[in-house]
What does this fold into?
Amino acid sequence: MFAILLSEGMDPFYQNIASFPTAVFTFMLLLCVLFWLAAVLGVIDIDFLDVDLPEFGAEAGDFANPNALAGVLLRFGLQGVPVTIILSLVSLFGWLISYYAVHFLSPLVPDGILSFLVGVAILIGALYVATLITGVMIRPLRPLFKKAQQGVPKQLLGQKAVVRTSVVRNDFGEAVLEDGGAGLILKVRSTGGEQFQRGDVVVLLEYLETENAYRVISENEFMS
It folds into this structure.
């Protein structure tokens, strides 16, 4: 497989993904891959980029919202799922559209300022179309995340969870609660300056509605 990736036949592919404007989406994809690796390893929260979206109803496209990012998400129907998933899908679809646009149009456009202008047009067009496609693709996912967000948070209080991130502080951390299935990944926060490490057993003490997180204490402290 590595022989194929390093063969001369792959040179056009590498040239396309490293040329403007595809290189922009290539960079975005790399950042997304690094993010998901860090999230799997428990270095960062999966939804650390999430923003609170107000319910605009039929006026969801209103840009009067002071939160510009929220306004954009609502305008393209990108609400209801974590922002990190949205950015990953936009990057992927934008990369595919840009790659094939460059592949077929580059031979027809002479080098120079015209080539740059065409590249800018491809970048804007790919980003716009990728955003529209992402809005359609996430529609079936919204009920899943809505159900997970509604849940029964107060019924989980008093249950034990295992820290999955490298550390849990009063402003960061996640833990896994065994539910008989794949497990629930919950955002958790310690009390004061207390910290927990990966693998520590904690008890869900309080639900923080504004943060959609749980205040936790050690199992020993809970039992004492």
